[in-house]
Every structure is written in C-alpha cells, then in structure tokens.
Amino acid sequence: MIPVTGRIALDESEIGESFVRASGPGGQNVNKVSTAVELRFDAAGSPNLPEGVKLRLKTLAGRRMTQDGVIVIDAQRFRTRERNRADALERLLELIRAATLVPKVRRPTRPTLGSKERRLEGKEKRGRVKSLRSGRPDAEG
Hints:
By secondary structure, the chain is of the alpha+beta class.
C-alpha cells in the first residue's frame, strides 16, 4: 500500500507503468534506453478513493484524465528510469492530496454602510480638488 494521506492509501496493483523512449538530454543513450515513464491510475475504478475526492480529482487532473477516468502522467524529466518512476508517482500523489482538500464555500458579502460613506466622501473630496485645478474663477466658490 502506498500512503497518500492519513486515511487514503493506494494499492500498488492499481498503478500501471510503461516505459518509452524519452526526448531531451541523454546523448547516445537516449536512442537506446526507454527511460521515460507513462504512469496510469484508474481513479474512477479505485475502491480506495471516496466519491468526493474522485469528483475533485476529475476537475484538477484536467487533460491528464481520460474519458474512462484513468489518470495518465508522463515523466521524462530525469535521465534514469528510477528517478522518472519516483517523479511520476510523487506527481500522482500530490494530485490526489490536492483533491482531498475540500474547497471553502464562499459566501458573498456586501460593503458596510461606513465603507460606502468613506468611499463617497473620498470621491467628493477628489472631485473638489479637480474642480479647483480647472482654473475657472467661478469654480472656487
């Protein structure tokens, strides 16, 4: 079991990995060795994830989640297979951890009477200053 949070842990059998050739640095090795990792996790079919987490995960994953609910993470940042595997797994766990956080419900508020009055006083004062700048003799009174 791979611990995600205190309550959620994933079974290793739920995560599939395939290795492909990576683009980028690696010299002559890049054409011979498959170091990039394509990690697949069936989030929709996972018995270890609560429904609320699955819904938020779908939103957070975006294009990384297929129509079937499978999260696909490509990792080719490093030159070795082991580091790419660890990177892909850590990115998956971070995504699931982010989905476990329930967003705070925002309740719209209205400005207070005092703040409205202060705003209008400031506007009046600014208007008087600007009218005095115009240079017209009748505006000073």
